[in-house]
Amino acid sequence: MSRYWSTTVHRLTPYVPGEQPRIDGLIKLNTNENPYPPSPLALAAMQAALDERLRLYPDPEGAPLKQAVADFHGLTPRQVFVGNGSDEVLAHVFQALLKHEAPLLFPDITYSFYPVYCGLYGIEYRTLPLDADFALRVEDYLAHDGGRNGGIIFPNPNAPTGRPLPLDAIERLVRGASGSVVVVDEAYVDFGGESAVTLVDRYPNLLVVHTLSKSRSLAGLRVGFAIGHPDLIEGLERVKNSFNSYPLDRVALAGGVAAMADRAYFEQTRQVVIASREHLVQALLPLGFEILPSAANFIFARHPHHDAQALAAALRERRILVRHFRLPRIDQFLRITIGTDAQCEALQEALRELVT
Ligand code: PMP
After folding, report:
1. Which of 45, 110, 249, 304 could lock onto 254 through a cystine, CB 3.0 to 4.6 A?
2. Do 125 and 228 lie in a common domain?
């Protein structure tokens, strides 16, 4: 607290990211990072970017990266916005596209940064409960207050549940809520979800947000992007150019371009993570765990006879870090990032000892 703070800062409740502790031999399954390294081509491109050109500012538009994203998705660069991690992209989305008279809508269980942005930008919001199986009900959003809302945002697959929403449900929502911007945060979609990017040409109110942090193993580089109608992108550019002209540095642009271009490596790593997830699920079910269907690089699991917080603490003693949220409805779940097969096996062994 300080009397020098603004009123807004006094009222903020900042986001709390997962721990990044320095513990030797730690098995870190708490922040949904990819256990495999970035594409070797991306690493080489970044190394090649480290030269005297760093004295020059980077391209303020991030044009080469927009082109690489557009090429990957079969779109035009005018449909692409790039930023310093998808968190920054989302921050601009809240300010540029979701701040309206009527309240913004999002699920009661969702990415916990959304209410934080609302606090920062003074955006009114309502949360709509997921159903008993933690699925999003499109009809609730269309029916809420006779269809009056200031926008809709949700992750797909959802975080921290991992549960995917089928593409036909998303299309029903985007079509039914044509007066609002619908933002689908697809941070984890490459691990088995159906991307709504295929819909952007047909729906001018749809914005899809992606990150290179998860499926492209570049959480440390901070690169994210949004895809949507050029008018939505222009709104984001207006905010970005009122905030930071150069959010992506030269190294990030070089690495991002090369990572988007290396399709073979992307395919290979995401398939390995998906296979490891299925393997882990099959190993934990016989131990009595209940696991929500996941299309992400993590699972959301609970044990009917063991307290989740106690399990997380016991795993930590064994140098295995998973994420536990002390929040209504989900405080008996553990969110477990998919690691390498060796890491998943160590986790399985530890859990076997703890629950049997
Ligand atoms: N959206 C969701 C649903 C997430 O879980 C995360 C990761 N915390 C992000 C966006 C942000 O990822 P990044 O800023 O690394 O792109």
Report:
1. 45
2. yes
Distances (CA, A) of 15 to 26, 113, 331: 24, 6, 18
CA atoms within 13 A on the CB side of 58: 21
**CA 96–ligand 1 middle distance (angstroms):** 19
Query: Domain limits at 248?
Result: 40-261
Indicate the top mutation candidate among 84, 113, 183 to test ligand 1's pocket, ranked by most ligand atoms within 8 A of CB. Answer: 113
Which residues is 335 bridged to in the sheet? 300, 323
Domain annotation covers residue 10:
no
In a domain, 6, yes or no: no
Walk along the chain (356 residues) and give the pLDDT tens digit of each residue. Answer: 999 999 999 999 999 888 888 888 899 999 999 999 999 999 999 999 999 999 999 999 999 999 999 999 999 999 999 999 999 999 999 999 999 999 999 999 999 999 999 999 999 999 999 999 999 999 999 999 999 999 999 999 999 999 999 999 999 999 999 999 999 999 999 999 999 999 999 999 999 999 999 999 999 999 999 999 999 999 999 999 999 999 999 999 999 999 999 999 999 999 999 999 999 999 999 999 999 999 999 999 999 999 999 999 999 999 999 999 999 999 999 999 999 999 999 999 999 999 99
Q: Give yes or no for residue 93 CB within 6 A of ligand 1.
A: no
Distance 148 CA to ligand 1 centre (A): 28
| Angstrom distance (rounded) from CA 122 to CA 199 | 30
Q: How far is ligand 1, taken at its centre, from the CA of residue 87, in Å?
A: 6
Closest atom of ligand 1 to CA, residue 223: 16
Same domain, 232 and 284: no
Span from the CA of 146 to the centroid of ligand 1 (angstroms): 31
> 190 C-alpha vs ligand 1 centroid, how far in Å?
13
Q: Is 213 in the pocket of ligand 1 (CB under 6 A)?
A: yes
* 331 and 309 Cβ atoms separated by less than 8 Å: yes
Within this chain, do residues 133 and 28 fall inside the same structural domain, yes or no? no
Domain boundary residue among 241, 261, 281? 261
Q: Quick check: 283 and 145 in contact, CB under 8 A?
A: no
Residue 331 falls inside a structural domain: yes
Looking at ligand 1, which residue's alpha carbon is closest to its atom 4?
Answer: 187
| CA dist list (Å): 235 to 53, 91, 120, 334, 342 | 31, 13, 19, 38, 45
- Mutational test site, ligand 1, from 93, 111, 154, max ligand atoms within 8 Å of CB: 111
Ligand 1 near 159 CB (within 6 A): yes
Residue 7 covered by a domain: no
Same domain, 213 and 345: no
Q: Are residues 75 and 178 in the same domain?
A: yes
